[in-house]
Amino acid sequence: HKDIGFHTVGDIGYVGSCGRHLTWQRNLNSIPLGTRFLPANADPVNPKVPLADVFLTPIRGYNSVGFNEAAGSSNYHSLQVTANRRFAQNVEFGLAWTWSKVLDFNDGDFGAVNTVAPLRAWNYGLADFDRTQVVKVNWLWHLPTWKSAFAPVRAVVNSWQLSGIATFSSGAPTGVGYTQVTPVDLSGTPSISPRILVAGDPVLPSGERTFDRAFRTDVFRLPAVGTLGTMSKTLLRMPGTNNFDVALFKNVPIRDRFHVQIRSEFYNAFNHAQFSSFDATARFDSNGNQVNSRFGQYTAARDPRILQLAVRLQF
After folding, report:
1. What dihedral do alpha carbons 86, 90, 96, 97 form, nearest 10°?
2. Three-state DSSP state, 42
């Protein structure tokens, strides 16, 4: 906590937390990887297909057997910086920057974890609500007054205020999924599906991204039969936020404590095209070729500029 001049006070600090004995749910009746591929589990009537799954579970005759336990963990680490200017010379502002990372097994109470794969490698990773960088800036500016102007001019040009909030944030972490044109059992169990195989860095530098190519699509492969692919639960980040909300308003005194406020509010004031998601599902044919033409394309955007006008009576 330090006064850094210009009527501004700054703070910098580390904030962290650890969670232990968090609740999750695991299936006690999961079928191990490759079980359907074993000759001993072939259907005697038709040896080309395996027995029904109900005959392959460890606890025969039952499907899933959910077991709730307090065995999960999480951790959060962050650098947090703030700067606040007290109202002086008609200006005040605040700035907050957080650089952080949060890891967990699941994001809610009794979320499912998969024990067919190695527990930590498959389930532990970035939380859905992790945002590496978050910057918030807010300001209020009483616009200069023209005291020497004629009364009608003063009534028009004086008593204006400009305020706003600027938000810059990393996007949410996400995985990359896939489908098959001709379905093939890759895991030998209904209890888990392999994750997509990654053969290189899928992240594109920001300057190389286009509407049709938000990330490198050529690094993804169909996993081999009997494998789990690349086990990380997140591989990319959805688009981040770059947004300005601005308000311009004028206070018109009426009498004593009564005055009218005329407001104009601009959400996404600069009308930035802010994409919010992309197609992150590959589709592989029988030869392992990726055939989804929209793979890697942006698919949605946040709201364009929205203008709101209002008149408010204050007393």
Report:
1. -120
2. strand
Contact in structure between 81 and 94 (CB atoms under 8 Å): no
Strand partners, 7: none
Q: In the structure encoding, which two tokens stand for residue 91, read together?
A: 């200006």
**E strand intervals along 191-294:** 197-198, 220-221, 236-237, 241-255, 258-267, 275-278, 281-284
On whether the CB atoms of residues 138 and 164 are closer than 8 A, the answer is yes
Half-sphere exposure of 74 (CA within 13 A, CB side): 22
Pairing between strand 66-88 and 8-27? Answer: antiparallel
Q: Are residues 275 and 210 in contact, defined by beta-carbon separation less than 8 angstroms?
A: no
β-strands 241-255, 258-267 pairing: antiparallel
Q: Does residue 261 sit in helix, strand or coil?
A: strand
How is residue 67 written in tokens? 């077991």
| Inter-CA distances, 77 with 99, 255, 298, Å | 8, 53, 31
Q: Is pLDDT at 251 greater than 90 in this prediction?
A: no
Can you tell me which residue has the tokens 């006008």? 309
Q: What type of residue is 142?
A: H
Cα separations in angstroms, 129 against 104, 154, 281, 290? 10, 49, 21, 30
Beta bridge partners of 14: 79
Share of the chain above pLDDT 90, in %: 80
If DSSP codes are grouped into helix, strand and coil, which group holds residue 201? coil
The per-residue pLDDT for range 86-97, each reduced to its tens digit, is 877 788 999 999
23 pLDDT higher than 70: yes
Residue 153 one-letter amino acid = V
Per-residue tokens: 18: 């650890």
What six digits make up the tokens of 279? 């197609």
Contact (Cβ atoms closer than 8 angstroms) between residue 261 and residue 312: yes
Q: Give 103's strand partners.
A: 75, 126
Distance between CA atoms of residues 311 and 315, nearest Å: 13
Q: How many residues does the chain have?
A: 315
